Amino acid sequence: MEMKATEFDQVIEEYHRANSEFAKGNPGPLQQLFSHRDDVTLLDPSGGMQRGWEEVARRQERNASLFRDAEPSAFERIATYVTPELASIVEVERHRARVGGSEEIVTSTLRVTTLFRPEEGTWKVVHRHADPVNAPRLREALTQQ
Predict the structure, then answer these.
(1) How many CB atoms sit inside 10 A of residue 108's CB?
(2) Residue 88 CB neighbour total at 10 angstroms
(3) Residue 35 sits in which domain range?
(4) Concatenated DSSP letters for 49-94?
(5) The domain spanning residue 54 has which CATH number?
(6) For residue 125, what pLDDT is reported?
(7) What is the pLDDT of residue 97?
């Protein structure tokens, strides 16, 4: 799948919109962008690791259910790499939302690396690794069982 980095920007914009929806508690748009294959992986801010679509989908639904009343998310792109077989972005994501049972709006800042590959004519997320930079409440909410 031949694509220039500037064309890949449209894929990233869709991914950002889906991430903003996720921060509002809606995992659906983001789940549509993920590969549904057995080798998809997710390393989320709780420190958990999921492999395979069923595990990834369950974790996304659980984590999204912890967010509500989100403000628009912000994304700072550090790097973009695009080849015909694989693309990646390295970013800092900032979200402001109520997390868990808290009524306080908190800011979460995540360092994120996302890998994409072409599947059936469209780019799909095959790996996402997000670590909290300064979000102890986010980490606490995500690690509670």
Answers:
(1) 25
(2) 16
(3) 5-143
(4) EEESHHHHHHHHHHHHTTEESPPPPEEEEEEEEE-SS-EEEEEEEE
(5) 3.10.450.50
(6) 98
(7) 87
DSSP assignment string, 100-111: TT--SEEEEEEE
| Domains identified in the chain, total number | 1
The count of other CB atoms within 10 Å of the CB of residue 33 is 19
Q: What is the pTM of this model?
A: 0.86
Residue-wise pLDDT tens digits, 11-69: 999 999 999 999 889 999 999 999 999 999 999 988 889 999 999 999 999 999 988 88
Distance CA 19, CA 76 (A): 13
Residue with tokens 């890949």: 8
Distance, C-alpha 139 to centroid of its chain: 15
Residue 100, amino acid: G
> Please, what is the Cα angle at 46 between 63 and 34, to 5 degrees?
50
Give the number of other Cβ atoms within 10 Å of residue 114's Cβ. 20
> Closest by alpha carbon to 89, among 124, 110, 115, 70?
115
Six-digit token pair at 49?
């690791």
